[in-house]
Specification:
It is built from two helices and six strands. By secondary structure, the chain is an alpha+beta fold.
């Protein structure tokens, strides 16, 4: 079991016990499967609700902003990613 304090070698210390955690709703309006934690030192973490002591992705404020903007722009839309991969595999004309 991971403790409440996680140390990232480059980003610093994230205290999950002291962080402000939110659980966004999914597309269907039900509570989502992920929680997002905001630490006082500016770091942001994302973890699965059903495994709070498991793996947590830790972001700097700048990384978090870039991630959120990418999601809003559709960069993580699976259908778009698949279409981009399909197009990249087509022979050049």
């Amino acid at each position: 079991m991971a403790g409440p304090v996680r140390h990232h070698p480059l980003k610093g210390r994230f205290d999950s016990a002291a962080a402000q955690w939110v659980r966004p709703d999914g597309d269907d309006g039900r509570p989502g499967e992920l929680e997002i934690g905001f630490a006082e030192n500016g770091l942001v973490a994302m973890r699965r609700v059903d495994d709070p002591d498991g793996t947590a992705l830790i972001y700097t404020p700048e990384e978090w902003t870039a991630f959120v903007e990418g999601v809003k722009d559709g960069e993580l839309d699976f259908a778009i990613l698949m279409e981009d991969a399909r197009r990249a595999s087509l022979p050049s004309e």
